[in-house]
Amino acid sequence: MSAKKGKGKGLAVAVATVAAAGTIVAPALANETATTTNEQGAQTVAKTTQTTQRSTAQSEVDKATQGVSDAQSALDAATSNRQQAQRNAEQAQQNVQQAQADVQHKQQDVEQALANDPATNQAQQNVQDAQNQLSAAQKNLEVEQQKAAQHAETLKQAQQAEQAAQDAANAAQNAKDQAQQTRDQAKAKVDATDKAKLDQTTSEKAGALDKATKAADEARTAATDAQAKADEAKAALDEATAIAGDAGDPVKVKAAQDAAVKAGQAVEAAQQAAGKAGDAADKAKNEADSKAKTAETAKNDLDKARTARDKAQKKADQSAEALQKAQSGKATADKAKADAKTADDKAQAKLKDADSKLADAQAKADRADAAQQAAQTAYEQAKAAADAAKKAADEAAEKEAQGAAGWFQADNAEYAYKVLTDSSVSHYLEYTHIGAKDDATSLDNLLKALDMIDECNRLREGEGLEPLKVSETALAMAMVQANFAANGNYFHNRQYDNAGENLDWNGEDANPYDDWYTEEKAAYQDAIKSGQYPGLENMSVNEVIKTYPELANKVGHYLNVINPDYVSTGTAYSGYGEGYYENAYSQEFMSKNWNVYADKDTTYDAADYRKMVEQYVSSIRNAQSNYENAVKAMNDAKNALDKANTAKTDAANTLATAKAAKATAQTDAARTADLLEQAVADADAKAKAYETAKAEADKDANTLKDANALKDANATLEASSKAYQTAQSASDQAAQALKQAEQARADAQTAYDQAVAAKDKADQRVNILTNAKAELDKAQAAYDTAKTQADQKAQAAKDAKDAQAKAQSEYDTARTASDQAEAQVKALEQAENDLRIRTAALATAQADLTAKTDALKTAKARQAKADEQVKTAQEAVADAKAKVGEAQKALDKAKADAKDTEAVKAAQAALDKAQADLAAKQDALKAAQDAQAKADQNVKTAKAALDKAQTALKAAQARLDAENKAKADAAAKKNEQQLGGSQQTALKPTEQATLNAAKTFDAGTGNLASTGTETTALIFTSITLATLGLAAWGPSRRKAAKPRHAA
Predict the structure, then answer these.
(1) In this structure, are residues 403 and 441 in contact, taking their beta carbons and an 8 Å threshold?
(2) Confidence of residue 1008 (pLDDT cuts 50, 70, 90)
(3) 766-780 mean pLDDT
């Protein structure tokens, strides 16, 4: 089957062709064992061949073939021109890069020549010294500006603090004035109010309310009782009226009289019980009144104790607050004093350290100057060495760019060189870019090819075979083929005669022999085990190819590797694949009997050849390495010089900084001494303020006494609280006992009243029964009297209730006035306490304002001094800048004068020449790039012409094939009719093969049905090849294999 490019990126593909003697070719084209065709058939074949060659169709094929050949030649020429144009462009690019590097070096030479001039050097040093002085002046200015900024910030903060203190003092004064006004108003209200009289009035109104309430309750009870008696009288009247009807019945009269006697007895018993309950209730009431009075007294004592406790607590709190503020102010001042002392100690230490660092900086500046001079000498020596190494490296770089082609030239392998460069020797050179990184011709891939040969020989050794020699011709062929294959061409192009070939598409780190040898050897051994190939285990490679061509097509790579007829080989690897598994490996094999390149080839033992190549590569790489080392040494020397120059400048800057630091330390030491002095004064003032505050606190209220008073007040409050709780509990118990006694008396009274009522009712019944009319009149009179009394009692209850409401209103008014007077007293106490606090706060704020005002004056003085120092530093910077300008002018003049020296003139002339050479090479590069673009277009045009010619050839060949087949079939049929099938003479094997091939030829595709080889002229040319004993067997196939490393 024909090889076609697969879509999968994870496939490794292997294809093989085998070249061998003519005796093994015919079976690959047809079956030599077939012997059924007669001699006349052979004559027919010969006649058909002759006739075909003379036909019109053949003429068209010849013409189309010539057109393809001409188009191919034109494409080869265009490709060769493009390759040469590409090489020219690459060389031109290298030339430009080299010229640019040369210009850079020459520019450095000019600068160095200028620097070497004594006057210029001295002027440069003067510039550097002036710049160092400027740098020192600028740093000193920065220091002074920072100090001025710090003083400005301190001044700003002092101004803000003074303003805040002023605002606080104003606020404290306003608050004190407001407190004074509030106290005066509260005092006026208290003075204008007779609180004692108001409290007396309230007490009187409370007594009157109690009496009115009691009277109202009694009147309400009396009204209720009177109404109840009126109701009873009405009921008695109604009952008497009803009873009067039984007055004539003696039995009922007697029963009523007996009931009256019993009711009288019940009245006497109830009267005795009511008397006892009344006595108990009176006693309980007396006890409850006594207990309530005791509880009231305890309540008053508790209220007084609580008021005393609150006053004592408030006084103690005020004393503690004043003392705490005084202590806090003193502690803050003491801490500020300690901090100032610490800052002053640090400043003095820094001043001492600045003196030491200044001495160190001076010593380092001296050492840095000596080191810079030594580094300058070392750099000049290293640069001379690098220039010499560059010349050697440039020559080696040209050899590196030539890759394997350069090696073949060095080894006098002329034909191998032509294989890589001559389009008349090799086709498809458009895929080969000599020396390119991924190209098979790169030196790295040349070394990789030698690794492949070593692996092949190791495998052959395992098979008991002789190792293959290295053929430089085969190496070059393999490189061309690998580049062709790696560019998406998954088939054999068969451009090299009598050479076996293995191809494999796989990853960069793969081992192609895993596919070619290991996998196919397993398939070969499986074929032996299958029993389908009799005698296979004892066959030679050629016998396998002859006997089992289909099997040979499956294991052709393996057979190539172990073929004993091969004596030399060449391998290659190309990294041009689009995907990881599309890079190409190739191996070309040369036989000992059919090597048409032997007289042009150069072969070596693999080990000897490796040594030769490695020495060649090492000489190139070492030259580049030596140059890189020399450049590195020069760069290191330059870096060392730069560092020395930097160190010298840094040392000078450090010296200047040290000087400025000492000046700063001196200033800071003076400043911290001033701050310490101020802090000591402030601490003394705060200590004095503390003593004053403490004395004031002792004067207003002795702290210890306040504490004892608070303690006594709390103790009295606690005792009063307990006494009140005890008294209240006793009062509650007595009230409960009174309630129970009152209930018992009420129950006894009720029982008595009920007994009296029952007796009265019984007596009334007797009286009514014995004297009906008189009793009825009496009942009516009793009812009228009760009704009148009930109405009177109701009116009295109403009048008592109105009196109670009036007493309640008068009490509420008095109570409100009394409460207002009490609130005014408390407000006065609060206002007096607030006035004391505000007065103390005002004194503190005024003291703070005085301190802040003094601090502001000090900050303003220091700011003025700092501004003066900044002005002095600015003048120093301006003076240093002027000196730098003067030194720079002197340097420019020295450089201008130095240009007339011979050394600078020579260096400038060399630079001018290098720049002119660079311009010329840049022009050459553009011309080469334009030529390359034109060559690329010519290749595209030639390729299109070749495609068109190939299409025409294919069409002409198809017509010729159809015509030849028709003629051959007609001739064979006619011959069979003439012979009648009775006389048969066997054809020669080669003639029989040709006839069979003609019969099986697929006119539609131009392919051999038995092999699948993509060819068109093979059928009719195989007779000539068989006669010569030489042909190529090259079935193409594509096989998938798992890569060693998946992408």
Answers:
(1) yes
(2) very low
(3) 87
Taking a C-beta distance cutoff of 8 angstroms, is the pair 739, 250 a contact? no
C-alpha span between 111 and 904 (Å, rounded): 8
Residue 504's φ and ψ, nearest 5 degrees, are -150, 135
Q: What percentage of the chain has pLDDT greater than the value 90? A: 44
What is the DSSP code string of 232-260?
A: HHHHHHHHHHHHGGGTT-HHHHHHHHHHH
Residue the block writes with tokens 């052959």: 460
φ/ψ of 24, rounded to 5, equals -110, 5
Pick from 416, 402, 434, 429: which is nearest to 81 by CA? Answer: 429
Q: What is the sign, positive or negative, of the torsion defined by CA atoms of 629, 632, 634, 637?
A: negative
Helices vs. strands in the chain: H and E counts, helices first: 20, 7
DSSP string, 988-1041: PHHHHHHHHHHHH-BTTTTB-TTT--B-SSHHHHHHHHHHHTEEEE--------
| Residue 510, Cβ density class (10 Å: 0-12 exposed, 13-18 middle, ≥19 buried) | buried
Distance separating alpha carbons of residues 76 and 493, to the nearest angstrom? 15
Q: What is the pLDDT of residue 394?
A: 86
Yes or no: say if 1030 and 1009 are a contact pair by the CB < 8 Å rule: no
User: Is residue 831 within 8 Å of 183, Cβ to Cβ?
Assistant: yes
Indicate yes or no: pTM above 0.85: no
Instruction: Give the SS3 label for residue 984.
Output: coil
Q: What is the chain's length?
A: 1047
**C-beta of residue 716 within 8 angstroms of C-beta of residue 305:** yes
Three-state DSSP class for residue 574 = strand
CA distances to 28, 366, 724, 895 from 131, rounded to whole Å, are 91, 17, 96, 18
The H or E element spanning position 442 is none
Place of tokens 């710090």: 150
Estimate the crossing angle of helix 989-1000 against helix 39-54, to 10 degrees. Answer: 60
SS3 31: coil
Backbone angles phi, psi at 645, to 5 degrees: -65, -45
Per-residue pLDDT at 1016 = 31
Q: Are 469 and 457 in contact (CB under 8 A)?
A: no
Burial per residue of 238-265, b for 16 or more beta-carbon CB atoms within 10 angstroms, e otherwise: eebeebbebeeeeeebeebeebbeebee
The SS3 assignment for 566 reads: strand
CA distance 491 to 902: 68
DSSP E strand boundaries for 159-273: none
